[in-house]
Structure prediction request, 98 residues.
Amino acid sequence: MTYALRFSVKAREGLAGLPVGVQEAVLDELELFAADPSGLRVSRAYPDRVHDFACVEGSKRYSIFMVLRPIPAAGTLRVVSIGHAVQEWPKPTTETKQ
Prediction:
């Protein structure tokens, strides 16, 4: 069963704060879960799932964190929030001279 994606306002804002290439990577990742939600285990006690992944764009590495809520009865995957952290990539090396 394929799920329909539904974005909260917070998730839309988080997505909009990313460069376009990273936005595309996030949407690709979400489409994979929507097409095959079996990787998202549903628990009544904790309905939200956190999924993270990383992608590199230019000289930056983006660590993406998404809070997802599968709603099997409605056939939807609610994207609750999208956050990120950024690092220079590749990581600069420190050389010490003696």
In short: The beta strands are 4-7, 49-57, 60-71, 76-88. The helical segments are 9-16, 20-35.
